[in-house]
Specification:
The complex is a heterodimer. By secondary structure, chain A is an alpha+beta fold. Chain A is built from seven helices and eleven strands. Chain A has a single domain, classed as Alpha-Beta Plaits. In chain A, strand 7 and strand 8 form a beta hairpin. Classes of the chains: A alpha+beta, B mainly alpha.
């Protein structure tokens, strides 16, 4: 964009005002955000995922995720022939730097991005002895890191392996569904940076959200439905070999 | 003879319990955060703490407020749904203070992240083997990143 000094100076206050607007307020004092009006989830469209790792890098940058730990990560499945129970799964550094090139081979390949499922009946929140992790009124599983003891009961309780103990803070950490972004009307860092639209934030309480039409018209699954966790990360065309 | 003649020690003991219970209530009042239990068995203010964390990615709406020319060019091409910061990286600091100049991304790294050929990728996604495809030339010799289809006259 070609700007001369005059136009640049004219645009500065406009940009500043726009940005102030984006940053306006916490849920308590923001008139636009009411926790009772939302019920957050996510849609992951498996056939669109190219395994570029943009979501993993974006998540790490947005949330200061320490190296070697992941709030979201991408797995590559390789199912040969009919052997559904023994898929070969790789996730080098969580898929942060992409995946090794796969040569044309027998069987099928696909990528499965994973993150906290923000379960409505979450096993992780039930085991916390001090009330440091909870499901917020808008359906996001959050951690109060000032309350957490670091006992790691929840790390064991999560059936999806989404929690880790932060190596420096010594308290538990995991995906917050970018709570600081979604309460300001922005999408999550991973959805914002997914180049193919394979990840989409969904507000299940918003009747105009395209998620409702999508769920009606596609073959959608959650991970480990038999555990009745009330998972709210919906996977389109999830293969039966995924665990 | 009163039934309570020798029971003074019981009252003293009961008083001790009452004092201990009151002390517990006072202490509890100090150590339990005010918002604890407002929505459930947790500190309700933790929700506000979470929401107040700083942004690193400004979001494409913030970019498009100033860079509408790039947004328009992008809308017409096949990268229409690739948001700005997916390639340019987290730029909330630039959105807050436009005098901070972002680093220009290196297409040699960037393009192949998505477009390197691999049997694992969806078949309908455009993929190339970088060595065979470009003969070592940088991608932007032919493709404009904001509108990658090759038009007559090449990249601008």
């Amino acid at each position: 964009m070609n700007l001369n000094r005059r136009h640049f100076l004219i645009m500065l206050p406009a940009a500043a005002i726009a940005w102030e607007h984006v940053l306006a307020g916490t849920p308590e004092n923001s008139p636009n955000y009411n926790t009772a009006d939302h019920w957050w989830g996510m849609l992951i469209d498996i056939p669109k995922c190219i395994g570029c790792g943009n979501c993993v890098r974006a998540c790490a940058a947005e949330n200061d995720v320490p190296d070697g730990h992941f709030r979201t990560w991408v797995e590559r499945y390789h199912v040969t022939d009919y052997d559904m129970v023994n898929p070969q799964v790789i996730s080098p550094d969580g898929g942060k730097e992409g995946f090794p090139v796969a040569e044309e081979d027998a069987g099928k390949y696909f990528f499965v991005p994973k993150l906290c499922n923000h379960c409505a009946d979450s096993p992780c929140t039930q085991v916390c002895p001090v009330g440091a992790t909870f499901v917020s009124p808008d359906g996001v599983v959050l951690i109060d890191q000032t309350y957490c003891l670091g006992c790691a009961y929840c790390v064991q309780a999560c059936p999806y392996g989404c929690r880790y103990i932060h190596p420096e803070k010594k308290v538990v950490d995991k995906c917050t569904l970018c709570y600081h972004r979604i309460t300001k009307g922005l999408t999550t860092a991973c959805c914002e940076n997914c180049p193919t639209g394979a990840r989409q934030l969904a507000d299940l309480k918003n009747p105009n959200d395209p998620i409702h039409e999508f769920l009606k018209t596609h073959h959608v699954q959650v991970l480990k439905p038999q555990m009745a966790t009330g998972a709210k990360v919906f996977y389109n065309e999830l293969d039966g070999s995924v665990r | 003879m009163s039934a309570f003649k020798n029971s003074g020690h019981l009252f003293r003991f009961a008083l001790l319990f009452v004092i201990a219970f009151l002390a517990f209530l006072v202490l509890r009042n100090f150590v339990v955060p005010k918002s604890f239990g407002k929505f459930g068995h947790y500190r309700a203010d933790a929700i506000g703490d979470m929401a107040a964390k700083p942004l690193h990615y400004a979001g494409h709406e913030a970019c498009e407020a100033c860079h509408s020319d790039v947004a328009d060019m992008k809308k017409a091409g096949s990268h229409a749904h690739v948001n700005c910061e997916a390639c340019h990286g987290p730029l909330a600091n630039h959105a807050a203070d436009p005098s901070i100049t972002p680093v220009l991304p290196d297409t040699a790294v960037l393009c192949v992240r998505c477009h390197a050929a691999s049997a694992a990728k969806p078949k309908n996604f455009p993929q190339v083997s970088a060595e065979d495809h470009s003969n070592g030339l940088p991608c932007q010799t032919c493709h404009k990143p904001h509108s990658p289809a090759i038009t007559a006259g090449g990249a601008k």
